Write the structure tokens for this entry.
Amino acid sequence: MSKAIENLRTAQEQAMAIRPKVGGFPYLAETLRRAGVTRNLWSLPACQSIFLTNDGPVVMQGQPLVAGAADIPAFDRDGLIKALRIDQAGESTFPEFLAASWRAGVVQYDVDFEKRTVSYYGCKGEEYVEAYGAVDIG
């Protein structure tokens, strides 16, 4: 296992241990940022996640949301915001959030841990950017 993978896994485990159920994403993000992760690039519906870290890039392949050919939903900003608020309230699992984002037409998103932003993209160049606040994880 590479240093990048080991460092990423350790940071993810630490983040899950301290992350509150409600509003937990900033805790995960800050833990990853402190571990040297600069960006996290997601591709939907493949559920492929690329982490850019100070120790090198890492790819994680999740369970794809679709199999075979599928129509891409139209970008639905309001549907995406609803999915975000449900997740932020601790009322969905991460796989449920990914599925809801896909249904809202999100084909990729980019977490910038330095700027503390998440940019969501549709296949026709649509974009929704949401900032998240800094947290103190001690």
Remarks:
- The chain has one domain: 3-131.
